Amino acid sequence: MPFLSRPRRAFWGDLRFLIGIALVALSITAVWLIIDAADDAEPVLRADHTIVEGETLTADDFQVVEVGLGLLSDDYLGPEDLRSGQIAARTIEKGEIVPLSSLTDADRSRKTTIVIESNTGIPEEVEPGTVVEVWHAPPIDDGRSREAPRILVADVIVRDVIEPDGVLASAGTRLELVIDRSDAAEVLAAVTGGSALSVLPVGGAS
């Protein structure tokens, strides 16, 4: 009677089995990590609306949410971290979990705010948080004409758009801008000197 040898299992079959075991192990580990992160969730602050650079921060600007950030939790603003006198160091978008790096003390800031009136209106897309250029056309000595428009200050942030209302409806649109303190004197000189001012979103002057 001939001897029948048992067929050997193919190498690839063994490999697929091992891969299957590894995938199951990875899935279990992933689920465990998700559950563990949920257990480690900590309260942090999320912006309730868009906060413009230079804006003073208060508790009303934020919502408290529970987020599992792990080792990064110390890098984000918690309810106990918010102090009076803090301002936004950059624009914080609505819904953003707030990093501590996006805050600074008001007395350390090099920014200030100034209100100007745009003689030519403003584009529809300009709103709080928009980065804009301010152009001006200074009057010529005879007072009946103006020089060619040129950029007065670039890359400033709109803090607020103040629409004309009531008896001011015939006036131009006013904007509150966040600017560097080093630019404030030049902007004020243009305003008091009678320059015609215009505002364009960055990239809109080409």
From TrEMBL:
Lyase among keywords: no
Transmembrane segments: 15-35
Xref: InterPro entries: SAF
Residues covered by the SAF domain: 42-104
KW Acyltransferase (keyword) present: no
Residues annotated as signal peptide: none
Keywords: Membrane, Transmembrane, Transmembrane helix
Name this polypeptide is given: SAF domain-containing protein
